[in-house]
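Lecture 7 notes: from sequence to structure.

We start with a single chain of 341 residues. Read the sequence below before looking at the structure.
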Amino acid sequence: MITPPTAQAPAGPPRARRTNRLAVIALITGLLGLFMIAVGCALAALPRTGRHGDRGRGLAVAGLAAGLAWAVALAAVVAVAVTSADGGGAVPAGVQPYPKVGQCFDFPNGRLMTDTRIVPCDRPHEAELILTFDVPDTLWPGSDILVATGRPGCWKRLLERFRTRSPVEGGEVVALLPQRAGWPRDRAVRCAATAPQAVQMTGRVNALGKRLRMWDELNPSDCFDLPPDERLPSVRYQDCARPHDAQVLGGLTMSAYSGTEEKVLRTRAAGRCASRWAGRLARHPARGRFTLRAAVLPLVSLEDGSPPVPGAEGDRLVVCHIRATGPGRLTTSVAPPLFRA
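Now the structure, written as tokens:
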């Protein structure tokens, strides 16, 4: 007896492949910038989409690409920020590196050279970099224009900060100019306050700088203390209600011819001050406590970066002032009754 074959049940429809959840998460987090999560989920999803037959391989690849793009962008931003904070990053070939603001340094080959050597500020040093400013972004302007721009620009900004263009007693201002090899990437003029020639200072340029004044920065009625060495070009501003050495009466100018001796100029200046102020001083109630003096110095223009040349022809500024007589000091202002006379 032959048994007919048993009929097999028809096969059901094929199982639908599911979309891998990690692939979906990778895509979403990649688009949102959560690159660490996106990369991790994408790397975990890729094997499953191949070995287990899950759908979503394209989603995982897209999430991985988006996450890596965010990572690269973030790394670029951080690199730019670090470079900016570091003062411009690597120094181009041929450019002498300069100090940064707040750093102290020496000039190993003289102040006319561009090379500097960083020194801790608590050790003896020649200069401190105070501030910087950028010159316009143009073609290389040439050394002459940079010289004419640099020092006056430093003077102007130091006046705004310290009320004097030279915040170190007896010192000067040096402008470290942009270098052609670094132009236009580096257009900064660096303004340094320096100690007097052949002298070093210790510590930072501090609040004392706000009390220093050059003679030509004094105003009528200003009271001040004289420096230990009267040949220094600066004095120390003082409150007239406190003991002080001297007080300004006023200023005037006079002409000087080339080769005129400074002693002759001082004599002429004293006579000019006496003709203007002696009569009024004679009527002052405290006339026995002070004497009339004259300080003579070359006129300095903030528009000209070159230092004045002693003995050169040109106008001189005369600062007429009074000084305490004898070893004592002035304790009040003489200006109010003097100017009312």
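The chain has three domains: 21-85, 104-208, 213-340. Keep this in mind for problem set 3.
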